[in-house]
Design brief:
The protein has 257 residues and is an alpha/beta fold. Helix content is 56%, strand content 14%. It has eleven helices and seven strands. Bound molecules: NADP nicotinamide-adenine-dinucleotide phosphate (NAP).
Length: 257
Amino acid sequence: MKKATVGIIGGTNGMGRWLADLLSIQGCTVHVTGRKTRMTAVDAARVCDVVVVSVPISATAGVIADVGPHVRKGQALMDLTSLKKDPVALMLQHSEADVVGCHPLFGPSVTEPSGHNIVLCRGRGNAWYTWIRTIFEKIGYTILERTPGEHDRMMAIVQVLNHFNTIALGMAIAETGTPLSEVNQFSTPIFKTKMDIVKKIFTESPELYADIIAGNPDTNDVLQTYERVVSKMISLLDGGDGSMLKESMEAVAKKLF
Ligand SMILES: NC(=O)c1ccc[n+]([C@@H]2O[C@H](COP(=O)([O-])OP(=O)(O)OC[C@H]3O[C@@H](n4cnc5c(N)ncnc54)[C@H](OP(=O)(O)O)[C@@H]3O)[C@@H](O)[C@H]2O)c1
């Protein structure tokens, strides 16, 4: 397999750091850049075979526009963004290089590939797409090849709906005005597990989750559905007991499981 030179913009931390470690172990020469590194993103674009953009979502479009024109035919421009439609379109627009969209469906702490999936989107060209796919598959990751639109539609469920629901839970608990220290004394195992997730979403990287929700092209559709379902659930309790809610849950269980 080709031992490529890879430049990771935003490789000083997070997912960029994750990919830098992975590719170094595979024998690639890896340069990482951040806002304060001596090597700039444009320097990396000039010397590397593959240039990977892995910066916060809000900075991604600007970085692609800046660096894209310096990544030329024969090289590859790739990204790790949690959204795929806009970044892949921007990479194609701003560069003549091969383009690969990539979204690992996990966070940077994952080192054990088993059970973890990575979405790859073909942008332009075949050689570098096959190169990165072969590396991930050799290590043991499962690859899902999808179009950017297909990816974003699924992420509207797996990330937008899921994280929005978690944020709503945290906000509703705060809105009750009951101190969490008090609530926690009555915690059940399921509540504890859910509150661990609420805490992670609210405290670890609120920007990432807000941008994942705001930036998905299917967010409006999926949140309208969510709003409709919450209203319906409330109306199902109008009878004064839980029978209508139970029947609705049984019908949904047949559909889902
Ligand atoms: N975190 C996840 O769980 C996860 C999972 C899958 C995909 N992703 C995607 O991976 C990408 C990176 O996310 P992350 O969570 O790894 O981000 P992060 O840890 O917050 O930042 C990654 C890198 O971006 C650089 N950076 C920060 N702000 C910047 C700016 N304004 N301009 C240019 N560079 C900047 C930082 O380098 P310096 O501080 O050295 O400048 C840092 O090394 C995002 O597109 C995200 O959607 C994240």
